[in-house]
Amino acid sequence: MEFKDKVFQLRMQLNISQETLARELSVCYATVNRWEKGTSNPRPQQVYAFEKYCKKHNIYFKENQ
Questions:
Q1: Is 52 helix (H, G, I), strand (E, B) or coil?
Q2: How high is the mean pLDDT of the chain?
C-alpha cells in the first residue's frame, strides 16, 4: 500500500480532516495534502511519527496490499 493510501485510510477510519492530522503530526496542512495526493513523500522521521500515531489508535496496514 502506498503512503498516500495509508494517509487517506487513516483519516477515513478516524474521521478526521487533513488539518487535524497535520496538527497531530506537527506538520502543516499542505504537507498532509501533498502526501495524500502523492505529490511528495514524507521524510523518515515523519514516517516514524505517522506509524506511531497509527499504533496509538490501533490502526495497522498490511504491507502486501
A1: helix
A2: 94
Q: Are 18 and 11 in contact (CB under 8 A)?
A: yes
Question: How open is the CA angle 60-61-65, to the nearest 5 degrees?
Answer: 160
CA-CA-CA-CA torsion for 47, 54, 52, 7, nearest 10 degrees?
20
Fold of 3-56: 434 Repressor (Amino-terminal Domain) (1.10.260)
> Where in the chain are the domains?
3-56
Cβ(3)–Cβ(47) below 8 Å: yes
Q: Check whether 64 has a pLDDT greater than 70.
A: no
